[in-house]
Design a protein that fits this description.
about 170 residues, mainly beta, Jelly Rolls, eight-stranded antiparallel sheet, two-stranded antiparallel ribbon, about 10% helix, binds manganese (II) ion
């Protein structure tokens, strides 16, 4: 490779441009808008996913998820942790056995094996950055006895009942 070729990357490398401008509306240049998960793989509603950084040298991925008004992420848990910053809109999240109202620039820490779910308000989206390890375990979905345990806290029962389909 000559010195003139320094801008081109070797085959297979995926170095992003140094700067990828926001193209508006929490979309970024060269970042594809993806499905949150495969349809039917887990219960969720109206969530999109963008992978912003995914460099093996970091060992982690930074994703941006956006839940449309009235939508929600999957109720799940796993060994890996999430470090979340709310970037857009407003909503609520379940972490463990508590429900929290969240708004722009709030930080949310999801510890290992804590049940968690994000719900957008009815009239606002909920967009958030989520940092995770690249190597991570698969999310677990709640079984009937997990749901029964979660429902023992009234606030949690109301939260996971909203929108109906955690049992799906
Ligand atoms: Mn998760």
């Amino acid at each position: 490779m000559s010195n003139d070729d320094h801008a081109s990357s070797p085959a297979g490398a995926q170095a992003p441009a140094a700067v990828r401008a926001e193209s508006g509306d929490c979309r970024w240049r060269d970042v594809p808008l993806m499905a949150y998960k495969d349809e039917g793989s887990a219960p969720f509603r109206d969530v999109s996913r963008q992978v912003l950084f995914d460099d093996t040298r970091l060992g982690c991925e930074l994703r941006y998820f956006e839940v449309a008004p009235g939508g929600h992420s999957t109720l799940e848990r796993h060994e890996h942790v999430h470090a979340v910053m709310i970037l857009r809109g407003a909503g609520r999240c379940l972490v463990g056995d508590r429900v929290y109202a969240v708004a722009e620039r709030d930080l949310v820490a999801v510890p290992p094996l804590a049940w968690h779910q994000f719900r957008a308000d009815a009239h606002a989206p909920l967009g958030f950055l989520c940092l995770v390890n690249q190597e991570r375990d698969r999310p677990q979905l709640p079984a009937a006895d997990d749901l029964a345990a979660l429902r023992r806290v009234a606030e949690v029962a109301a939260f996971i009942r909203t929108g109906d389909d955690n049992d799906a």
